[in-house]
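[SOLVED] Predicted holo structure with NAP

Edit: marking solved, answer below. Original request kept for reference. I posted the sequence and ligand SMILES and asked for the 3D complex as structure tokens.
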Amino acid sequence: MTSTKHILITGASSGIGAACALHLDRLGYRVLAGVRQEADGAALKERSSDRLTPVNIDVTKSDSVANAREAIAEITGDGGLFGLVNNAGIAVAGPLEALPLDELRRQFEVNVFGMIAVVQAFLPSLIRGGRIINMSSASGRVAFPFVGPYAGSKFALEALSDSLRLELRPSGIFVSVVEPGMVTTPIWERSMETTRDMLADLPGEIQDKYRSMADAVERAAKKSMRYAISPERVAGVVAMVLRARRPRARYIVGIDSMIASRVVRFLPDRLRDWVLTRAIGLPR
Ligand SMILES: NC(=O)c1ccc[n+]([C@@H]2O[C@H](COP(=O)([O-])OP(=O)(O)OC[C@H]3O[C@@H](n4cnc5c(N)ncnc54)[C@H](OP(=O)(O)O)[C@@H]3O)[C@@H](O)[C@H]2O)c1
């Protein structure tokens, strides 16, 4: 089955974005796959049908977003966009006491301001009944130590999505967030690499202060990778949102995300801190 529905996905070069692009392409949608490198677009094309079109878009650069809007308007013509999947994201980690503010800004530039920039640019092209799908995370519901920047960006994305959903209801555009737990993608390895470099540049006493906590968080993260789900499973949920007659506000994906959203989030603060301290093995 082929569809005339165009779907723009940001951050489609790898992980969840690539899985969404390929899955939606297989389902017959006309996928506009947002990438930053030509080679990533070419790699996607090799694995997809002729319907898939790579589009260069860096969500943090207004020129790039504007160029993508022009390119996409030419492709979609009067048909407009049916779906916008705001998936591009990075994970910045580190102790907030010493986190360089530029790192915090970089985190929010991609996951928060980038998402809104893309929404603002493409809203006029979204047709009535169309969908905005924002890729959140279990970290948008529960904040762990050391991933404060990432969790902060996803909490912000959740709040912005709630506001947007109500604002766009009269326009007949649905806004949903997808909240996966751990997913097997390159994001955490990329994050750990930059975090290790950043920690190595911090003053010795800060490194000593946080070393055991950093080790505990890294151990817990590696352990939880055992329960990680595949990006294809998240792509399946994105497809479900696109096909739903009335999409829900939130879609939880994975058992760890379910526990975070349905249990941990509602614990009284002291109990939650106690549970997280023990579960992660944090120094007490
Ligand atoms: N993996 C998980 O455990 C997990 C769990 C919950 C939610 N998520 C969310 O899922 C989304 C996708 O992450 P992933 O796990 O699939 O990681 P990933 O494989 O590292 O993919 C991230 C994507 O975002 C793109 N990106 C980064 N900065 C960008 C920018 N400035 N402009 C446009 N695109 C940019 C990357 O493109 P380049 O290749 O060009 O850098 C890449 O395509 C993120 O929003 C993440 O927070 C992930």
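OP edit: The beta strands are 6-9, 30-35, 53-56, 81-86, 126-135, 174-180, 250-253. Thanks to everyone who chimed in.
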